[in-house]
Design goal:
Distance between the termini: 9 Å
Largest sheet: 7 strands, parallel
Strand content: 15-25%
Radius of gyration: 21 Å
Shape: globular
Order of helices and strands: EHEHEHEEHHEHEEHHEHEHEHEHEHHH
Number of strands: 13
Strand order of the largest sheet: 3-2-1-4-5-6-7
Helix content: 40-55%
Structural class: alpha/beta
Number of helices: 15
């Protein structure tokens, strides 16, 4: 069988992690694999010699990508879109598969312009209708897809993401150059509205100087460069004189990311909407107690190994931060429960489920 897969997002944050961890073994299931994307980026992967790379640098969600799909996708048994920007027009594929991680554009329309909402809805509907099967990453996302689109639940398979067992392993710390405070609370995510960083900042402000002097707040993720960035975050930091207590790491390499997790005292995830919520598992394997929003898919991922809070109430979050920081016993209980919870989510299991789906399609 011949697979063609669009890998332009392989170096993005969420979808990129998903692709990097399942592609290496999935390509071995097929006789012939063609990947679409930036040639230099893809050629750097150690599995690149096993595939044919077709250069494809068009922006996602663009008219040009849609016009070029039909031209560059060769005859194949399966075309796989790992995002909802699936081809609108005809392609030379016997079957189509799409992975829809979430429906954030529809569930949170205020984050996007009217034009972006309309186009996104059209792309979602196209992906759901034209694909022979849909993969999504949580029961929550499956329920959201069924809520917004008329598709059979049998057409959707839930495949949870995994977390690398060695993500929290000790690396050569002397070679890792990341400037972080000695003790800190950690937030992981890009500065976008649905990540709800503002609630965490308000809770952190309410902690007062004694806590702020002891526990700085580290933001691990990109600070700027988003079409839908959250400028209120930076206004709040400036207006409340929090600059000396907040550290933005910017983009980091994988070993640096793990380093920043392991050095944290507490991980806080205030997101309002997540298709999965992988940072929760990453914190768990790094032996960090987790405090998470109770919205969307996050309870599905965190299980009973997380302390949850209402992400719309900073005071609720502040009180729970204090309760955990003041109680070493609770911290150790959360760390132990977290390791057990994270062990339930493996990339090997995700890979095997994808292969089962491929088999059912043919």
């Amino acid at each position: 069988m011949k697979l063609v897969v669009d890998l332009r997002l392989i170096n993005s944050s969420g979808i990129g992690t998903y692709l990097k961890n399942i592609i290496p073994e999935i390509i071995d299931f097929f006789d012939d694999v063609v990947v679409l994307g930036n040639y230099k980026e893809l050629a750097n992967f150690n599995w690149s010699h096993k595939v044919e790379i077709i250069p494809f640098d068009d922006d996602i969600y663009s008219l040009s990508e849609q016009l070029h799909y039909s031209k560059i996708i060769p005859i194949c048994d399966l075309f796989w879109s790992p995002h909802f920007n699936a081809p609108l027009f005809g392609i030379k594929a016997r079957k189509r598969l799409v992975t829809i991680h979430d429906v954030n554009h529809l569930a949170n329309p205020t984050y996007y312009s009217f034009a972006k909402r309309i186009f996104a809805k059209y792309l979602y509907k196209n992906a759901a209708r034209k694909s022979d099967h849909i993969v999504t990453v949580s029961e929550f996302s499956k329920s959201e897809i069924l809520k917004y689109f008329k598709v059979s639940p049998h057409k959707i398979s839930v495949v949870h993401c995994g977390v690398k067992k060695d993500f929290g392993s000790v690396f050569d710390e002397e070679s890792i150059k990341v400037a972080v405070p000695s003790t800190y609370i950690l937030f992981v995510g890009n500065v976008k509205p649905h990540k709800n960083l503002l609630t965490l900042l308000k809770a952190y402000k309410a902690l007062g100087l004694s806590y702020q002097n002891t526990y700085k707040l580290v933001i691990l993720g990109k600070k700027t460069g988003f079409i839908t960035g959250d400028t209120t975050v930076f206004e709040y930091i400036k207006n409340n004189d929090l600059e000396e207590y907040i550290y933005f790491t910017g983009h980091l390499e994988d070993d640096q990311v793990s380093f920043v997790y392991r050095k944290a005292t507490l991980f806080v995830f205030p997101s309002l909407y997540e298709g999965f919520g992988l940072p929760i598992l990453e914190a768990m394997v790094c032996n960090i107690p987790v405090l998470s929003s109770d919205k969307a898919s996050l309870p599905e991922v965190g299980g009973d190994a997380v302390v949850y809070f209402d992400p719309l109430h900073p005071k609720n979050l502040k009180n729970k931060i204090i309760a955990i920081l003041q109680d070493p016993i609770i911290q150790q209980q959360l760390i132990k429960a977290g390791k057990n919870q994270a062990a339930k989510f493996t990339w090997k299991l995700a890979i095997n489920k994808h292969i089962e789906i491929f088999k059912k399609l043919f």
